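Below sits the subject:
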Amino acid sequence: MRHHPGSGGLPVADPVAYMTQVAASRYGRVFRERALAALDLRPGQVALDVGCGPGTNLADLSAGVTAAGKVIGIDLDPAMAREARHRMAGQARWVQVMVGDGHALPLAGRSVDRARLDRVLQHARSPAGVLAEIARVARPGAVLALGEPDWATLAVDSPDLRTSADFTSFVCAHVVPNPCIGRELARLALSAGFALRSVQAYAVLFDDFAAADPVIGFTSLTRRAADSGFIGRDRADRWLTDLARTPFVATVTFFTVAAELTA
């Protein structure tokens, strides 16, 4: 089992299938499209995807830099890196997938023109440390695209607003190590030596419980909260029953930042 950022820490039996599903969902496509536009990929560039997972974004980067450039995907999980290599086999000779830690990138300094991180920093031991590493390997003028949710903004409609608030508190206190990372991205990018190009925030709307549950982990995490005593079990059960009824409405704010290395 692996805990995934997009699931709010939900343990997933098949992480490759889960991450592929999220990337293809309407929730995942928004940042993908914004990141590609912000990166402004050009033939001959070196593009880096930190936390590339099963390689869902490598084809887009490859198409942007073409055979004249290079794409590097890095993931901490060997199984993810192996799947990414498999998916890119035969598609792009200029794509390299490596096992590595964002806190200590296995790359030479001043070697990257474009970099993207999608829902990686929320689980990083040191988000500032990861961005410092990006700054180390980036060339002057390199462009960075970041995307992270802000879990403290998670709002779930229910007749029991107390439990909705408690669920958000549980996610922030016990599930995601850096729950407010979304709002921190601009400040952290500046501190790492990047100049801001754009900062955007938008509410991701979930209007179907069956679709939202595997992404956020409402059922799994509510049961964890009940098991730990954070939310009373009877109250937790009633809340989940209410959520499964229509209409279902929940939102979380997602932040995107595009930045350029100034020196």
In short: Residues 2-152+176-206+252-261 form a domain with the Rossmann fold fold (CATH 3.40.50.150). The first strand starts at residue 2 and ends at 3.
